[in-house]
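ok so for the tutorial part 2 we go from a plain amino acid sequence to predicted C-alpha cells. step 1 is just haveing the sequence, like this:
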Amino acid sequence: MAKKRSFAAALNEQIANEFAASMQYIGTAVYYDAETLPRLAAFFYRQAAEEREHAMMMVQYLLDVDEEVRIPDIESKQTKFDDGVAPVKVALEQEERVGEEIYRLFELARETKDYRAEQFIQWFVKEQVEEVALMQDLLQVVERAKDNLLIAEDFIAREALGEDGADDPTAPPPAGG
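step 2 — the prediction. this is what the C-alpha cells look like for a chain of 177 residues:
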C-alpha cells in the first residue's frame, strides 16, 4: 500500500502555488499600470500582497509544527494580455484553481487525521470562497465595461473593492509578521 503524502509536503507545494499566484497578480497589476488604469493596478497589487501573506502564513505554520519549509523558485509571469478583460479571467481561473488546491489540503488533513492541519486550513477554505466571489464580481464589471474600463475604475473606487478584510482576527499569523 502506498504511503500517504504528508500534509507538510503538500503544504510546501501550496506555498509555491501561493507565491506563484502573488507573482501573477503583480504581472496583472503591471499590465493595468501600463494601461493607466491605477485602480485596477492597485487592486491587483493588493491581491499580490495578500497571496504573499497567505504563503507566509503557511511558512509560519510549518515552523510552528517543526516541519521543513521549502521556498520555491520564481518563474516569470504574464504581463501582456489581449484586452482589459483577459487579466481578470486569468485571476478568476487562478482563484478557482487555488480553491481546489486548498480543498485537497483540507481533505488530506482529514484523511490523515492531522487535526492541527485541519484546523489551520479551515481559514483558507473560507478565504477562497471570498476570493472566488470577488473575482467573479470583478469579471462581471470589467466585461460590462470592456469598451471603457474607466467605468470599472469608478466601480472599484466606489465599492472599495478588495480593501476589506485586511485585519481578520481569525487569520493565521504570517511568518515575520
